[in-house]
Every structure is written in structure tokens, then in C-alpha cells.
Specification:
Layout lengths: L7 H28 L4 H9 L18 H14 L1 H9 L4 H8 L2 H12 L5 E3 L15 E5 L2 E12 L6 E9 L5 E10 L6 E6 L10 E11 L4 E3 L9 H35 L1 E2 L2 E2 L4 H26 L8 H25 L11 H8 L9 H13 L17
Helix pairs in contact: 1-3, 3-4, 3-7, 4-7, 5-7, 7-8, 7-9, 7-10, 8-9, 9-10, 9-11
The protein binds flavin-adenine dinucleotide (FAD).
């Protein structure tokens, strides 16, 4: 892909990460998928290469890198191993970016130290009965004296069981039992009693990173663990959603990287594979497929880079991030599916990465905001109207 408008430093970063991706990261990808083991060795590699926590400000030990720098890193890694790409997302965007934007000095220092040491924080929003309607969550944090007591269940939490730092969203209630809105709390697995990993989801793809059910049973935390305070019943959780725009751009980037990796494999194979006495890329049916794949990738990359650039000095623009995520996730599924087709029966074999890529890429129209919910976000922004989805007309926060 042509990466127009990149600075010399960004081109250097991109070349460096591409080399890493094509080497040690690519060599491990199939095994990570097969064994379903979190790639701690790749975490060490990213740490050594200073690719973890790049977006953390320098005063907290990071490099104050831009969202686009993170995107270039994630894109290159995901072309070889989507799990490693996701680790780069969640150590540069999402929960860590929310803490760095809204946390106290103490919280920022703690979170930055943990991420720079190799922890991928988990963000806990989704519940069995509250998915797209995240505002309908029932996990509650009750104020009791100088503590909050948290009870509830979250599911599909990425990193559950490997992540230590957790950013947990719950409805906050005062001592009299009055609801104050949704707040975000920090807790550390194994240090906070009552945070229990109770199930690992048997996922279709992205198998090297656990998705877990987490139960909070009388989890007792001090008020100093509150990162994002509740802002009233009808406000939803605007701060989280703002920070989540970086995560959405990150998720779109993983999908983009996987699709670029698959496209490159198909392009190379189309020259090597001969049928009817000629390379298969001499058949117009396949040429047009390649053309369509490349057009989708160039367009998706432009949307993702543009959304990343919109966030300099803050978080990416909500509309641009949603548009990029919808288009890229849907296009990436099509491109990977087409790339697999180029390989005929071989594409269907577990000996080649195409089937893994097809399973991995399928996730991105779901996690990080479904394509349908993000279309609602796009329409709401275009029409400049709050478009409540609930029957009583409340405009709660939709997550993902
Ligand atoms: C691999 C993976 C990782 C994840 N990681 C995390 C994580 O780390 N933390 C976390 O909190 N969550 C995580 N999630 C959960 C994810 O955010 C939710 O799955 C997502 O928000 C959708 O919720 P749901 O699965 O309950 O689907 P539902 O909300 O039940 O939706 C079902 C279908 O209805 C559609 N739909 C719902 N409401 C509307 C509407 N108003 N308009 C149009 N269509 C609608 C949806 O788009 C979907 O197609 C992850 C999910 C996956 C698959």
C-alpha cells in the first residue's frame, strides 16, 4: 500500500515494524493460533522494540507518539499476526488512553508503569444482557463509607486472565442507593479481592488472546480507584466513548493489516500458480478481483489514517472513527475471503494462514462497536440529532 503523507520518522518506524512482523512475529503466528496461548514472547519483543505504550506521554515513561504512529505499528504487525496487532492496540489505545486522559497523577503513573512493563489492560464494559446497549449495564458500584463495593458480571473481556490492570464500568450508587450514572474504576487482578475470571470464551479466531467472563463479587475498592466519575443519569459515559474512538481506530487498523497481509499472499500466489499453461493472474476474472481488493484497501487505509490524524492532541473524531471502522471491517472481511479464493483448496487448509486470517478478521464488525451500531453513530452525527434507541427515548451510551 502507498502510505502517503507519512513523515521520514514514520516511514522509518513502518519499515522497522514490517521487518519485525515478517520475521519473528510471522514465524510464531500459526502456533499462537493453534496453541491458543497468549504470546508473552511477542510482548517482550514489542517491549524491547519500544512499541508498547508508545502513545503514553514522555513524562510517564512513554514516547508521546501520535495515534498515526501507533496505527502504522498495528497495521504492520497485524499483517503477520493479528493477536500481536491487538496487543499493540490495547497497550497504546483504549483503557490506557482513557487513564492517561482522565486519571489522577497516581493512576497515570501506575497504569503507565504497568503497560510499559508488558501489561495489556482490559476494558470491561459488555455484559450478558447489555452489549450494544452498554448503558443498560447492571454491574453496580455501591458507595459504602469510604469504599465502593462492586458486583456484577462482564463477558467477552479481551485479555481476561492475562491482563492485570482492569478498567471496569459500573453504575454508581450513593450511600442512599440513588443512581449517579456510570463510572469507570481501576482494579488489578490478583491484588483486588472479588475480581474473578470465571470462563474463557471458545472463540472462532484471534485465539491467542483470551476473551473472558469476569465476575465481580463484593469487589471492594477505594474512591481513588475511580478514573471516570459518573456524570449523571442521562449523560451516559461520554468520556469513555471519547477515549474509545482511539480503540475503534485501532480495531479498524488490525482488520486493515490482516486484509493487507492476505492480499499480498494472493498477489504473490497469483503469479506463481499456473493453470491452463499460464499464471492465474492472467485471467481477467482474477485481475478484476485483485483490482477491487486493492481499491478497498487503499480506501480503508485512507479512512483509518485520516481518523488517526484527526485525534492529534486529543482523541480521534467520533464520526471519522466510526466511518473508518465500518468500512474497513466490512472491506477487510471481503478482501480476506477473496484472497483465500485465489488459493483454491490450499486456501482452505490449515497449513496456510488464509483460513486463520478469515477467522480472525471476522471479529471486527462486532467488537469495538458493531457495524450496525456504528452506522447509528454515523447517522446521528450526519443528521446532528440524538437518535435514541430505547423506547422511552433516552439516549444512553452505546459501546462496543
Ligand atoms: C473478540 C471480541 C472481543 C471483545 N472485547 C471486548 C472487551 O474487551 N471489552 C468489552 O467490554 N466488550 C468486548 N467485546 C464485546 C463487544 O463489544 C460486543 O459483542 C458488542 O458491543 C455487541 O454486543 P453483543 O455481542 O451483546 O450484541 P447485541 O447487542 O446483542 O447485538 C446483536 C445484533 O443486533 C444489532 N443491534 C443491536 N442494537 C442495535 C441497534 N440499535 N440498531 C441496529 N442494530 C442493532 C447488533 O449490531 C448485532 O448485530 C468483544 C467482543 C468480541 C467478539
Amino acid at each position: 500500500m502507498n502510505a502517503s503523507g507519512l513523515s521520514a520518522d514514520q516511514l522509518k518506524l513502518q519499515a522497522r515494524v514490517r521487518e519485525l512482523a515478517a520475521g519473528p512475529v510471522a514465524r510464531r503466528a500459526a502456533e499462537v493460533d493453534r496453541t491458543e496461548q497468549y504470546p508473552w514472547d511477542n510482548v517482550e519483543l514489542l517491549k524491547d522494540e519500544k512499541l508498547l505504550g508508545m502513545t503514553i506521554p514522555t513524562q510517564y515513561g512513554g514516547q508521546s507518539k501520535s495515534w498515526l504512529d501507533a496505527v502504522l505499528t498495528i497495521e504492520a504487525l497485524s499483517a503477520a499476526c493479528s493477536v500481536t496487532g491487538r496487543i499493540a492496540v490495547e497497550t497504546n489505545m483504549g483503557a490506557i488512553s482513557a487513564v492517561m486522559a482522565y486519571g489522577s497523577e497516581e493512576q497515570k503513573k501506575m497504569a503507565a508503569d504497568m503497560v510499559l512493563a508488558g501489561d495489556k489492560p482490559a476494558i470491561c464494559i459488555t455484559e450478558p444482557e447489555a452489549g450494544s446497549d452498554a448503558g443498560g449495564m447492571t454491574t453496580r458500584a455501591d458507595k459504602k463509607g469510604n469504599r465502593y463495593v462492586i458486583n456484577g458480571r462482564k463477558h467477552w473481556i479481551t485479555g481476561g486472565g492475562v491482563s492485570r490492570l482492569h478498567l471496569i464500568f459500573a453504575k454508581v450508587y450513593d450511600e442512599q442507593g440513588n443512581e449517579e450514572g456510570i463510572g469507570g474504576f481501576l482494579a488489578i487482578r490478583d491484588e483486588t479481592k472479588g475480581l474473578k475470571i470465571t470462563k474463557r470464551e471458545p472463540t472462532m479466531g484471534l485465539r491467542g488472546i483470551p476473551e473472558a467472563v469476569i465476575d465481580f463479587e463484593d469487589m471492594d475498592v477505594p474512591p481513588s480507584s475511580l478514573v471516570i466519575p459518573p456524570r449523571g443519569l442521562k449523560k451516559g459515559f461520554a468520556d469513555l466513548m471519547n477515549a474509545y474512538n482511539s480503540q475503534r481506530v485501532g480495531a479498524a487498523t488490525v482488520a486493515l493489516g490482516i486484509a493487507e497481509g492476505a492480499y499480498q499472499l494472493a498477489l504473490d500466489w497469483s503469479e506463481k500458480r499456473h493453470q491452463f499453461g499460464r499464471p492465474i493472474n492472467e485471467f481477467q476474472g482474477l485481475q478484476w478481483k485483485l483490482a477491487d481488493m486493492s481499491i478497498k484497501l487503499v480506501a480503508a487505509q485512507a479512512l483509518v489514517y485520516n481518523a488517526a490524524r484527526s485525534g492529534e492532541g486529543g482523541f480521534p473524531d467520533m464520526l471519522l472513527a466510526a466511518q473508518a471502522k465500518v468500512f474497513t471491517s466490512e472491506s477487510a472481511i471481503q478482501v480476506v475471503n477473496d484472497a483465500l479464493q485465489f488459493f483454491g483448496a490450499r486456501g482452505y487448509s490449515r497449513e496456510l494462514p488464509l483460513e486463520r486470517m478469515a477467522r480472525d478478521v471476522r471479529m471486527f464488525t462486532i467488537g469495538g462497536g458493531t457495524a450496525e451500531v456504528l452506522r447509528n453513530v454515523v447517522a446521528g452525527a450526519l443528521l446532528q440529532k440524538k437518535l435514541p434507541q430505547t423506547r422511552d427515548g433516552w439516549s444512553k451510551g452505546g459501546a462496543g
